[in-house]
Amino acid sequence: MFNQRQLEIIDLLQTEDRVSVSELTQRFGVSLVTVRQDLKKLEDQGVLKRTHGGAIPVDNGYDTSTRMWNNYEQKLRIAQRAAEMVSDGETVIVETGSTCSLLARELATKRGVTVITNSVFLCNFVRRCPSLDVVLLGGSFQHDAEANVGPLTKLGLAQFSVDKCFIGADAISAEKGVSTINLFRAEVARAMVKSARKMIVLATSDKVGANAVASSFPLTAIHTVITDKDLSREGQTLLEQAGVDVITV
């Protein structure tokens, strides 16, 4: 989706408060027109905000947007592989998180797909994808995570029964299963398990073998983990011994 030059601009904005068009033309040896086209594309995707003569990072509080551009290429491959598991006309549950939002955008290339989600960020991320139907679950809004959580969210989930649920993970381990940094998000994830026949976890390989604060559900609840090719042998064994199908991309 992004070329190498655009990915480098994203990396620059992880450490810089602002980038200028003139600096970027010198850095990459391209024209002003090319740089402006790059910045417009990145702004359209919610990565940055254009200013007079340059661009600044987007501030999203919890920074799901910023998290997305960390290990972006791995996350995109994971999302693309996950999208292959969804058929035209299917309804799926997609949790909050950066890789899950990328998945939703990939699903917009299919016909008649409906996404049920608690992620306000995801809804905003796919706002320019009219072919994708999105059902936003209600609940208590978490400003930092840009997601709805709590009893109303769980009540909404209980009304649905789908084949597949796609969920992100802050950590995956034998001790805590899939875990997250947020207790309320963990509660919603447990409710998602009850509403789907197959739980598919999307996570970069650095999450496997780690622990986070709140346990969402055990490894035995997972049908498939999609991760990147840097998954360690120990991580692969951990998942396979729990009966989890492992897909590396």
From TrEMBL:
Residues 2-57 form the HTH deoR-type domain. InterPro entries: ArsR-like_HTH, AsnC-type_HTH_dom, Carb_Metab_HTH_regulators, DeoR-like_C, DeoR_HTH, NagB/RpiA_transferase-like, Tscrpt_reg_HTH_DeoR_CS, WH-like_DNA-bd_sf. Transmembrane segments: none annotated. GO terms for molecular function: DNA-binding transcription factor activity; sequence-specific DNA binding. Keywords: DNA-binding, Repressor, Transcription, Transcription regulation. Repressor of the lactose catabolism operon. Galactose-6-phosphate is the inducer. This is Lactose phosphotransferase system repressor. The lineage of its organism: Bacteria, Bacillati, Bacillota, Clostridia, Eubacteriales.
